[in-house]
Fold this sequence. Notes:
Chain A has 834 residues and is α+β, with helices and mostly antiparallel strands. Chain A is 43% helix and 16% strand. Chain A folds into three domains: 3-239, no CATH class; 247-522, no CATH class; 732-834, no CATH class. Chain B contains ten helices and 14 strands. In chain B, the strands form three sheets. A six-stranded mixed sheet of chain B has the order 6-7-8-3-9-10, with helices on both faces. In chain B, strands 2-1-4-5 form a four-stranded antiparallel sheet, covered by helices on one side.
Amino acid sequence: xxxxxxxxxxxxxxxxxxxxxxxxxxxxxxxxxxxxxxxxxxxxxxxxxxxxxxxxxxxxxxxxxxxxxxxxxxxxxxxxxxxxxxxxxxxxxxxxxxxxxxxxxxxxxxxxxxxxxxxxxxxxxxxxxxxxxxxxxxxxxxxxxxxxxxxxxxxxxxxxxxxxxxxxxxxxxxxxxxxxxxxxxxxxxxxxxxxxxxxxxxxxxxxxxxxxxxxxxxxxxxxxxxxxxxxxxxxxxxxxxxxxxxxxxxxxxxxxxxxxxxxxxxxxxxxxxxxxxxxxxxxxxxxxxxxxxxxxxxxxxxxxxxxxxxxxxxxxxxxxxxxxxxxxxxxxxxxxxxxxxxxxxxxxxxxxxxxxxxxxxxxxxxxxxxxxxxxxxxxxxxxxxxxxxxxxxxxxxxxxxxxxxxxxxxxxxxxxxxxxxxxxxxxxxxxxxxxxxxxxxxxxxxxxxxxxxxxxxxxxxxxxxxxxxxxxxxxxxxxxxxxxxxxxxxxxxxxxxxxxxxxxxxxxxxxxxxxxxxxxxxxxxxxxxxxxxxxxxxxxxxxxxxxxxxxxxxxxxxxxxxxxxxxxxxxxxxxxxxxxxxxxxxxxxxxxxxxxxxxxxxxxxxxxxxxxxxxxxxxxxxxxxxxxxxxxxxxxxxxxxxxxxxxxxxxxxxxxxxxxxxxxxxxxxxxxxxxxxxxxxxxxxxxxxxxxxxxxxxxxxxxxxxxxxxxxxxxxxxxxxxxxxxxxxxxxxxxxxxxxxxxxxxxxxxxxxxxxxxxxxxxxxxxxxxxxxxxxxxxxxxxxxxxxxxxxxxxxxxxxxxxxxxxxxxxxxxxxxxxxxxxxxxxxxxxxxx
Amino acid sequence: xxxxxxxxxxxxxxxxxxxxxxxxxxxxxxxxxxxxxxxxxxxxxxxxxxxxxxxxxxxxxxxxxxxxxxxxxxxxxxxxxxxxxxxxxxxxxxxxxxxxxxxxxxxxxxxxxxxxxxxxxxxxxxxxxxxxxxxxxxxxxxxxxxxxxxxxxxxxxxxxxxxxxxxxxxxxxxxxxxxxxxxxxxxxxxxxxxxxxxxxxxxxxxxxxxxxxxxxxxxxxxxxxxxxxxxxxxxxxxxxxxxxxxxxxxxxxxxxxxxxxxxxxxxxxxxxxxxxxxxxxxxxxxxxxxxxxxxxxxxxxx
Lengths: 834, 302
């Protein structure tokens, strides 16, 4: 026997007492991963997995430690064996003892789970690579320890070092929270693993650089950059910004920036919406950030977007219903659909403001067009399963015995899927599956599921997500124009029933990405950040003493200086406690502030920002006073006021919109105050927008007023007509559960555009008004009156009515006509019957 | 077999070896003596390339110690009191593990003889062996291939007298029959005297004496003088007279270079000599005399 074999055999002899335990642990691991055998709880599965790794460590560490060349007492140092032979034999032994069982179990699990050959090969390679890295890396790590104390210090210091390094390497503190085990983010394990090595290596460098032999120091110095380079590469792979897909500059976007308050850093909710996409309404559009740089700080997302998780993925979603109808045909019953709208890309972050408290954005919004496909269905009973390629869904758990109202039927849906980080660049988007129930009657209903999902098998190729499904109680109710509530609680299931009706099936839908576009946008100037909500601030202990105080400290008489007013407000506002807006005290306070608004609107406006102890009633009084007493020249005198949307809105409501057009245009260019688009459309000549900007504004805020203002004037007619057609095709549908107000505007736009279907749509709109949900009724309005009034208005504006009809009853005349008989006259831009 | 010249070693700025010069001649048992902390183990570790030397040269079996490789290690047997052996192995497993490394050099018959002589348990793990058994196992694993050079670093420390006797007698028998070169470090002088052909005494990182035992025993004498008057230390005593002490009319010293003519010198320095007695010294007495002498020299120097 050669010396190499003797050392190899010795490794086995050393591990012999542990081998039965290793075998048992690996068999249990196989059972957990392949689903063979009894169902094991998550906690037990967790301990089995970690126990297996602990056993591996118990084999690895003593083996490497026992003959560490860093120790002078090493036994093997005075024996006739070359270092290469010794270590290669040891490494081979450890690979067989440690890596091989994991690889074998992984291979067997993947085969037993029925994975494809590609997944079996890649999955086995993944775990082999992981095992190789662990074993190979542990050699220099353990060799370089000089003693047990250093090792203990190192083991304690490694997590600290990692925590210290991660924020720097990942460039943003908030991403620490993303590093939870068990996430399905590809490449997660590689950076964490490599980072651990880097941390160890750096620590070793500190421990060893000034102690030890020259050769060992050289090894350390070589090993250190090697680990760091590996870690940096892996982190770069995992955190590099997503490559832009079909990048297109967005001329204008809608930026919705709110702050949730809190000290010392308020968290901001940012939502950015590029102009609406030109895609079929049967397809869903999702948006996420693919680049986000705020005040020169790159906050680009680390996670890949989860496809199919945004927007209103409910049973009312038109694209979802389209998929269900395409798969099941007419035998299923679906609720009325709702158009999901155009949700923007959104994120919640803590943004660092610049010195003036503003934010500059350089971002890219990724727009993904999705089609929903039905993967299949399975009976809603425990034990049922469905497979599609390498994906498998199975239902586990118990079904309630029935009869007792307080026991809920519970099923757990297990979704098994392969996580291939070796293959991740080819699958950059992770799908979020959707689940619905089809009752025996054909009615489709939503399922209450409980998130977050649990996930297991974090170090295995085979991952499993589990989702607890509960039978729903009552679905949301939508009020319709006729006052009836539309409930989706199916009559087949009584409210207190527990079990799914026999024959119910679980249907699974998968989002399929069709195209992706990145809209890039840079804010032309810093965007003023909103003030944290006042409700987050603490009330002053003096609150409630204002009336007493006011007796001795009346508001400064005019003329007074800004300083005097500021000082008085600083004393006055914190003393305001709970005051009812109906009480005489409220009026007194309101008048006190109101007297200051005309001369010093800036002081009143800025008071909440300057005074920390201002809460809701005081804020309301300040707002009311500004609204009532603001003078028309306020923005002219204090241009800073023109940055506040609240002030601009007061100007519009008072009919002074013409005075603030420049301010409104400036804010719209920053992506803010898009609701002031009407103001710009009303006075387009006062705005220096380019044709592209006008078109983008119209796409963001399509309106009849915009169409009238822009067509043939600032945007060529055919171009605007084409854009209008796209907007109408994507957004307008009379079969949707869309609210009256939204449809109203689109219908008017369709009539203005001269769409051929316009008269038909108007007739359907007039006849089926009872189907339309109505938001709010004002004064003497009834649902019927608001529809008939609208129809009369549209007839007057967009139809050439016969004289008799015009003077008589145009509504009845119009409903009696064949809508196909109407022709649109491009000259008069009205419909007429030839 | 081993030639050390000007060997220096520092630990965190403290110089442990101040320039060791030492020869370990072939076929002899050389005892490396010195008090604790004198630098014995550091010297051996430098020679075995277990720690790196800072200065000087060390040749082992004609090779620079830094370049010792398998061909040399097949001819060297090294046993140290600090040596860590794989405690999870039994003695046979240890020998199975090592045997292939030595190829044809390993003598199975000799291994069996050693195992039988040392009466080692075969089924007990090394970590469970007593200190004496552990050292015997180490010795078996380092002698079974009949090394030309045996280096033993404090092999007797921690052994009880009976085991020490067994260990020593076994080693003595082997060295006599095999004719090995042995370099053994110890602070137990009396036991070394029983088998050492040569002695090197190291103190404070320097070799003070390196000589054959016979030569030392021939050279060193204890001299006691009885004078007519009260004894006083005369000026200009020879440097070879160590540790001169007086007490009343008596004086005593150690002559480190005793010859027939030494008596003449004594009479010349002490005219009122009544009588004198010269007796041979054992190795322990020589060691003590030298140690005392160096201590007094150091105190005078400081």
